[in-house]
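Case study B.
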Amino acid sequence: MNQNMSEPGSFDQAIYTANLAIVAQRWPDIHRQIVAAEIPRSVELTHGFPCKSMVVDGIHLGSCFSRKAEAELQASLIPEENDTAWVYGVGLGDLPRQLLKRSNLRSIQVVCLNFSVLRQSFGNFDHQDWLADSRVNLLSGWAEHEIFFPFAAVPSCLQLAGEQACHIRDLVQLELATPFLKEKNTEKNENLKIRLEENERFLKQDPDVNELFNTRCGQTFVVAGAGPTLSEQYAWINAKRSELVIIAVDAAFKPLAKAGIYPDIVVCIDSHEGLGSFFYDVDLDPAEHIPLVYFPQVFSDVLVSWPGKRFAALSEHPIHSTLREKYSRATLYSSGSVIHPAVDLAVKMGAAEIIFAGADFAFPKGQSHVENFSVGGHETTRTSPHWVLNWRGEKIQTIPNLRGYLRDLERYIDTHPSIKFFNCSQEGAKIRGVLLRSQTN
Amino acid sequence: MNPLTLRQNLDAAVVAFRVGMEASGSERLAGFIDCLTRQIVMYPPQVIAELQPLLNELMAAQARRDYTFVADLLEYPLSTLLNQAT
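Model:
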């Protein structure tokens, strides 16, 4: 497309001033943040297309062909009958403008995700019509901890979300990905059904996980994931071993064992056959006294070969609905990651405080897992464009799945205010609701 | 297994990218490219020549995660060109 040329971003002071005057009057806090915002690395205006658009750091804020059609499509996520709408991202202002055409709409909450981008948009596009509409409320994504429904989003603003808005961005993206994930899970669930039938014999004979509930009241638990930072924790865990109840996720068992640390409980939920490798090439004799808590979709060989006692658990997921009706087994929280039921087990066993070890939800130092987690040692990941913030406020690479697991864990933590949650490494993803604690404490 | 046609993949990718459903859009885009790869031998040389730079732009936009522009390229110039080819 030869006409796909961009020109350096101009900045129309008159338009900017007019837009900003409304913001200053209606939302002084937002005004301050826009004025203080830095200029993006690169801003270009498109020309030669049917529509004027703007490109910030390589991302088009809106369509170059039909911004109206694009906004109509985005607005279609908000049912016509709703009188309230949430909009994540401003872009060029087309989405709120489109929604305001609905006469039954009484309020639109527009959440800004990057003030630098918004400043540039205000300096190039007239936003006065929708900003001045009394039904509009402008909010900062910095201050939001949860998303609200029904909502629509400006995708470019999700890509360009600022560091402080990454939490709300992740929740929006997680929600938008949910229909696709459900579709994928439906395909996967057909295979899982076969596995569940195969493993029903274990479920029938093994005791209920609820036998472990309230057996360690008031104690300090370590929930060990298989993230790269697990190895940073070996020394202090070893030193304080007798004071801790350690629940290891399946992939963390071997690295812990090779460091001389055998957990008190192992939790296993993965259905893939690679799960077996988490228990190869390691001395399983000490595991004779270690309970294995499992969901019945796990790779059957693991259940057969586990030398210790097994405890069956179920989740609230629809895939377990038939088994829940058939067998009386307690449920553990699960939203895709084995960390979730491991934490829920700790809570239900009576934990007063839970310390995360190796729960990184990201790839610190380019590694996906701790060394020895599987056959072949630790994996080095490919470069990922996705990121989360670590405990030092630095961007670290991750993948959307891990980001989703992180946000679901944070939601779980939010619902358990009486329990203290800690993390001991600054390298992994920062977990909201969790305090950083020195390894030596 | 992606049973959708070239057009269905294109349309689904456009909708998904426009509303922010990145994973779904990426899968449909991959389905579109698969279909196109199979069908391209049937297109006239002039269409193939015009497709090449558009596909290069498409890949570049996808690589920088500029999904709005990916949707633009699919919905407008590529769609028009493919309509001419069939």
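Chain A touches chain B at residues 1, 4, 55, 58-65, 70, 73-74, 76-77, 152-156, 158-159, 172-173, 176-177, 179-181, 183, 385, 400 (CB under 8 Å). The remaining cases will be described in the next quarterly update.
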